[in-house]
Design goal:
alpha+beta, UPF0340 protein IV45_GL001368, about 190 residues, about 30% helix, DUF436, single chain, Rossmann fold, Antibiotic_NAT-like, about 20% strand
Length: about 190
């Protein structure tokens, strides 16, 4: 299993690094992760979770995000209404409302349990609006990412056996025919 976990962690690190580079993430951004360890190990989502795989993946993600100052939110499964584990300080800074629930292997999942084990002061919140994220196993993170969402293509489309997608976001372009989308200082000639 160690060799398989090493390969999975390498895939996570490569895909995540490429996503961060292409998505122009910066210090203070919130990054959401959805994770089905069942899918990673080649099983149907929710049917065969692996705490060992969850721990390895979350530790790898934390090892990449933390030095960059990017905050992590780990989405739970539908049994927790897709609530997310975040650091209490992040929730307070972003005005996120805490909810009372603790993840279990079949309610929240292995990724959330691993986040609780590896965060300094973890809490659950109901919703976030992240800059972007990584969806390992088709867990539907789109509801947690700011509008307008942008798909990111990396060299890693599968982690283990799980289909993996990546998202970033950008501010909405508003206005009409007269609007500009790059700064052009106003210089009126007299």
């Amino acid at each position: 299993m160690t060799e398989q976990l090493d390969k999975i962690c390498a895939q996570v690190k490569t895909g995540l690094t490429e996503c961060l580079d292409q998505g122009h993430f910066k210090k203070g951004d919130l990054f959401v992760v959805g994770l089905s360890t069942s899918e990673v190990t080649g099983h149907e989502i929710g049917k065969d979770p692996s705490i060992e795989v969850g721990r390895a993946i979350i530790k790898t993600i934390i090892s990449v995000l933390r030095p960059l100052g990017i905050h992590l939110a780990v989405q739970g499964c539908q049994h927790l209404n897709r609530a997310l584990v975040v650091e209490r300080a992040v929730a307070e800074k972003m005005g996120l409302e805490e909810v009372t629930v603790f993840p279990q292997i079949h309610a929240g999942g292995s990724g959330q349990i691993a986040a609780f084990e590896n965060f300094e002061d973890p809490i659950e919140v109901e919703h976030v609006q992240a800059k972007g994220g990584m969806d390992i196993g088709d867990t539907s993170i789109g509801m947690q990412v700011k509008f307008v969402q942008l798909p990111i293509r990396t060299s890693v489309s599968e982690i283990g056996h799980a289909h993996t997608t990546y998202l970033s976001s950008r501010p909405k372009l508003i206005g009409g025919a007269r609007a500009k989308y790059t700064w052009d200082p106003f210089n009126e000639k007299h």
